[in-house]
Specification:
The complex is a heterodimer. In chain A, β1 and β2 form a beta hairpin. Chain A is an all-alpha fold. A two-stranded antiparallel sheet of chain A has the order 1-2. Chain A folds into two domains: 33 residues, no CATH class; 194 residues, Four Helix Bundle (Hemerythrin (Met), subunit A), CATH 1.20.120.80. Chain A is built from nine helices and two strands. Chain B is an all-alpha fold. Chain B folds into two domains: 61 residues; 38 residues. Chain B contains four helices and no strands. The longest helix of chain B has 25 residues. The termini of chain B are far apart. The chains are: A mainly alpha, B mainly alpha. At the A-B interface, α2, α3, α5 and α9 of A face α1, α2, α3 and α4 of B.
Amino acid sequence: MNTATVPTSALPEHPPGWRGFVSDWSSDRHAFNVSWGKAMMWIFLLSDTFIFSCFLTGYMTVRIATTAPWPNPSEVFGLRVGSTDVPLLLIAIMTFVLISSSGTMAMAVNFAYRRDRVKTALLMFATAAFGVCFVSMQAFEWSKLILIEGVRPWGNPMGAAQFGSAFFMITGFHGMHVSVGVIYLLTVAIKVLKGDYERKGNYQIVEIAGLYWHFVDLVWVFIFALFYLW
Amino acid sequence: MSTASSDATHGQQHPISLYLKIWGLLFVLSTMSYLVDYFHFHGYLRWTLILLFMLLKAGLIVGVFMHMAWERLALLYAILLPPGALLFLIGLMATEADYTYGLRKLFFS
């Protein structure tokens, strides 16, 4: 009991670097100097990282183990523009749309902390619009693959049967995350416009929603590299 | 970098120009990884380039857009170290898949 107050007087409250790392974890108090909402979003995103990593690792496993040739994504996801085949065109456009949505989201967070309600809401609506655009292109991609190319989860005419199941599982789960993110962003944006956070004086919810959205973009970076470019 | 304690009401304040620069960088990196496919690079060159661009993009998004570069080390290590365990899983599964491939080659072809 009599030793409980000794360390606090010797050290500054938040020392930097490794000393800070140790003191943050060891002083019998909250470890993270962020709000509980932000800490919980980070921990949720960590668990989501493991889910997507399991999908991608499973995909890697079946792709290495199959003896049938893997369909060439560069050709499967190519588009015909005029009379030339451009490889992976749709996927490249989807990538740029999602990166742009991340850019507008980052700026929305910035304006939220400056308490500029209208600009924050507008940028969040733009982010959500990019998200809807992305999901629509994905729907187009799925219909093209299912109806025209004849890809099914249990087989396809182009090669290894595992292609379909890996593709639908990974991109489907990611698309679901984008759709949920759009609903989340629209909800927060409307509350920003109504002034709910102005009354509380706390705009951190915009940054937390932004964390989720950037994570969706982050997952796409890995899917793009590992599934489409491999 | 005055975010020793990120206060809920002030939070992460960085100039807009920083976000625009990162946005531009992400566009450039995406274009470059697309060009890797467009010019049909193969083998180790393709691998190195794809993984390099992927990790650079991931670093920019987590570091700047998600503000991890300005968070305290306690949070950073709590979030970024656990995924390291995944490298072990990936190594295990790659070995296992290689073995399965060998067996299939041996018995089914």
